[in-house]
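Example A, followed by Example B.
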Amino acid sequence: MAMSSGGNSGGPMSEINVTPLVDVMLVLLIIFMITAPLMSHTVTIELPTANPKAKDEEMPVPPLDLAIKQDGNLYFNDHEITEPELKAQFAVNAQKVPQPELQIRADKATQFKIVKKIIGDAKDSGMVHVGFMTTDAPKGQ
């Protein structure tokens, strides 16, 4: 409660100090004036339409399977292949659209330098989708 600072009455002041109220209201007015135009801007988005027939027409590209044995023998799609023949296969498949994925299955005991050389040959031929296949871990572990 405010007390009168002057005069003879010495009792409580009956007037409310509105200066802080006006300050708060002016700040709120400025905030709303700034933010109101931002709320009226719209962003147009073109959503894709679902076409179930398109999925039926697209045939998935089967992946290329490359198995590397411990001794360095190569098996491309379950057929034994030499390194020059494999490079030729990489070159042919790199030109396909969409490009098939090369899935490499290397024996656990295969030296990494053999796998690294095969990956380098695939990259040099233009293959961009290379994956590694593994076997499931034993159930006891």
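Example B, a separate protein, is given below in the same form.
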Amino acid sequence: MTVAPHSPLVLDSSFARELPEMAVPWQAEAAPDPRLLVLDEPLAAELGLDAAWLRSPDGVALLTGSGVPAGATPVAMAYAGHQFGGYSPRLGDGRALLLGELTDPAGRVHDLHLKGSGRTPFARGGDGLAAVGPMLREYVVSAAMAALGIPTTRSLAVVATGRTVRRETPLPGAVLARLAGSHLRVGSFQYAAASGDVALLRRLADVAIARHHPAAADAEQPYLALYEAVVTAQAQLVARWMQVGFVHGVLNTDNVTISGETIDYGPCAFLDAYDPATVYSSIDTGGRYAFGNQPVVTEWNLARLAEALLPLFADDQEAAVALAVPALERFRPQYGAAMIAGWAAKLGLPDGLDDAVAAQLVEDLLALLQADHVDLTSFCRALAGAGRGDVEGVRNLFLDLAGFDAWLASWRASGPDADAMDRVNPVYIPRNHLVEEALTAATDGDLDPLHRLLAVLADPFTPRPGLERYAAPAPVDFGAYRTFCGT
């Protein structure tokens, strides 16, 4: 690693300074032949960064971790976690580094973090590297999620390293530079709790409060208020996933953020046909993280966070549990309310409609979508057309016409607003076949399909002539889809 004394970027090292027990100073492996593949210039501008400098040799050195600003202390972050239900006491950044924290012109603090930057003490036998395809997948999907208005980490850039990565076949290597409100996660608290150092756990909670949920500091019980805020943030986040058909794929406790941002786009994908049992991840053989399981798994993960925080809730464990249980029990009603409110907007339901009526419309609709394996995104846009009188466009998506017609009559009787529906139902999502097409081409050196896809996804709600293939479900011959974590 070299120091870039004249870098225009200022990075703080507050995590390393405030929580040294959870930060191992480390440096990225040098990239033998770095080449910038993609840079989010609007995001760079939002952060107050000069895109031209980021494209320069010094900027690319920063984006690979080989050249950092003076005073910065890159670290591998320590955390624990339940992975597919099994507890691992020491996970951590096995192939990643936190370069530091930057403050944007609006005063917001962001982590600048690398993936694929080489082995760290947490690598657990892995090579610490990443391939072009998986890093570009995170870039594409996180950009799409941001455009959809869903809380997410952001991808700033992907740089090809010039190094070959050995997986099932040799692949070109890459490093992803991403931004997050922070990388604090449920697993961070599990790690601190497992250390038995209550002072460390308290310092970690204080950092989380200051960074993400400052109102908790003024509560009568700040740490319980922090927990309640995380429960609320996660209930709202997962409801947003369910409304657009996003499948995270590996919803371990180390992939659940304290901020309520979506993180770690590994074997993720979006639904075509609506089916709660959908699993895309090649490693999720038991379906633990199937689309429809995401709410209950998130609740389970939040229970693990409560367990870690118990020493801060009360000195007596029984008393602490008595506080934690009702706080966790808030998740289901909050998730349910967020789901109904989100679907009410997607269906254009008027304000003032009885909640029970809205809930029944949503429940009946999801059953119809599941029974006939209807494409979720296409349906929601076609339904707005039905609100304007074009009923056949949406009816053609169903086999059970009698069942759908009965539902449609009830929905139309509510007086839906088709224009409002178009503002919240996307035309374009990262269709799995289009993502694969772009990643395959990019791996072979052709970035044009990637750039075209990114341009479409940047404005997901506005239909544009000539982009019909980006709005269409996968062709029949696309087959069963499987994704991989890329490790």
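On Example B: Residues 438 and 477 are 18 Å apart (CA to CA).
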